[in-house]
């Protein structure tokens, strides 16, 4: 198996101060959420690429209707949350975050590499406002907020009156009404030549991203064609956190051992701009990934869902 797509903090040097209390009254400028119909939802796949990740088997699950944001939470939206509440993210309290090396500006001082995936660097001063650190540019307002942890996302959700989706809700929404398909647009595989329907890697990973899809790094949260439900970037761009912990359904010895390394990790879905068929073929609806609740990276974000009767939704 390829090394994990999302490196995790090692648990050392945890911040000692707690985040600011959430004193805001909630957001008033949220995007209109989209109603996702309930019913029998599909979860998983009959043809797993990484069986040890628990991608299979294909299962069916009853879901109630719910509402989902059309995009991941943007930098601008997260900024309103911080301005209203004074919240301080875990990356800010740690004093660092994990940045993909290809995003660092030319001449950046040496940084600490992650052992198994050395293209990930622990960069002092990297956080949601300055996603490549103090020597880089400010985060773009309409892009997904990154360098936020599961704990940060949950705090935002509490303020916004929503929650993170379950894995079943996320997959059901990502399929866009198409049923048993690998991608939100259907069956056709993205490539490095003439079909780039989402923001992933093109070229030899991790040396060169050809950016044939128009982006090296994150794309605006509302980019590319939405799926059948009107949801943008359900695969590619940034991994999306869910409310679930990472668990495997297999009782095979190898799977049990694999899960032991990720006990207590949080589950994320959808892949990111760093995924490529040759390395991390996880820009598929059934693909799964995990990281610790306090980890933050250049390619991890989130979107919210809301109970169907609790939020205005698009018809």
Automatic annotation (TrEMBL):
Top-level division of the source organism's lineage: Bacteria
Signal sequence, renumbered to the chain: none
Sulfatase-modifying factor enzyme-like domain sequence ranges: 30-305
Any one GO MF annotation of this record: formylglycine-generating oxidase activity
InterPro entries: CTDL_fold, Sulfatase_Mod_Factor_Kinase, SUMF_dom, SUMF_sf
Region called Disordered, residue ranges: 1-28
Pfam families given in the database record: FGE-sulfatase
PANTHER family associated with the record: FORMYLGLYCINE-GENERATING ENZYME, SULFATASE MODIFYING FACTOR 1, 2
Name of the protein described by the UniProt record: SUMF1/EgtB/PvdO family nonheme iron enzyme
Source species: Kangsaoukella pontilimi
